[in-house]
Design a protein that fits this description.
Strand order of the largest sheet: 3-2-1-4-5-6
Largest sheet: 6 strands, mixed
Radius of gyration: 22 Å
Structural class: alpha/beta
Helix content: 40-55%
Number of helices: 13
Length: about 290
């Protein structure tokens, strides 16, 4: 077995299929273990995407589940595909496991709904903003670690390019726009970058302005990730650690939060007017040298 593989969406899909096949046949893990010689704990790790099975292990499981030849071929291909690292593997290898997993999922998502309470969403950050905000939020990082994280953040943005880009709907609290990360000119360029990003048909950006009062996003930032052939995943990044939520009740809760925020936020035209005003304020501050 591979040691602690990063659960890409392909590995997660394989794990879910194996779990479903066993459940449909009403077989216990102990029974499957007896028939295949696979330790029950190992079988649990395979079914929860915590371990990648070897070819012979998968073959033994599929024999017990009596799958069709087409199913067998498709799942073997899924296992082979799961072994390939994502496009950002050189960067994610040096990142915390949960964040690296998030980046892998992001590369395979069809759409992402991102709410940020205090930061500009990562996929819409300029390099200068990222270079200021990362060490500001994690002051213990070395310069080399900051460089790697900045590079990973900028490389992530490639998902918004190409013939079939990620569909991004991003919402942030107005507070994120008024926190002068990196100084007035860095923020001016960042806000102008947001205005420019809104011109892309696959990017929607909204701001929950201060006049909206209390709202569900005040509990913290979160991301809802949507896939073509797989269930949604909610990602939460907090001081207490990163979490992935996949239970139906949790997914309904956070998609409900996002729909509420989407309705509460300024529409794109009003958001653009707010951004233009804020960019002008930063421009004036920069010209007068007011930090």
């Amino acid at each position: 077995m591979s040691a602690r593989p990063r659960p890409t969406i392909r590995l997660r899909r394989l794990a879910g299929t194996l779990c479903r096949l066993r459940a449909e046949r009403e077989l216990s893990r102990d029974y499957v273990s007896e028939k295949t010689g696979i330790n029950p704990a190992t079988l649990y790790r395979i079914e929860t995407a915590r371990a990648r099975p070897q070819v012979r292990t998968l073959d033994a499981l599929l024999a017990v589940y009596e799958v069709t030849d087409d199913q067998h071929a498709a799942l073997m291909k899924l296992l082979r595909d799961a072994a390939f690292p994502g496009l950002l593997q050189p960067y994610t290898d040096d990142l915390p496991e949960e964040y690296g997993t998030y980046i892998e999922f992001e590369q395979e998502a069809r759409s992402v709904w991102n709410y940020q309470s205090l930061y500009v969403p990562g996929l819409l950050q300029t390099e200068e903003y990222a270079r200021a905000v990362i060490p500001g939020g994690m002051p213990s990082l070395t310069r080399a670690e900051v460089d790697r994280r900045v590079q990973a953040r900028i490389e992530r943005q490639a998902v918004l390019q190409g013939d079939d880009p990620l569909r991004l709907w991003a919402i942030c609290d107005e507070a994120a726009l008024h926190r002068a990360v990196g100084g007035p000119m860095v923020m001016r360029d960042q806000v102008l970058h947001l205005i420019n990003a809104m011109e892309s048909p696959h990017v929607t950006f909204q701001v929950v302005d201060f006049a909206a009062g209390a709202h569900p996003g005040m509990h913290g930032s979160f991301v809802v990730m949507n896939f073509a052939d797989d269930p949604q995943v909610v990602y939460i990044d907090s001081m207490a650690g990163d979490r992935f939520l996949e239970e139906d009740a949790e997914l309904r809760r956070y998609t409900g939060f996002y729909e509420h925020l989407r309705a509460l936020a300024l529409n794109p035209a009003a958001t653009r007017r707010l951004l233009t005003r804020v960019a002008g304020q930063y421009q004036a501050r920069g010209e007068t040298g007011d930090d």
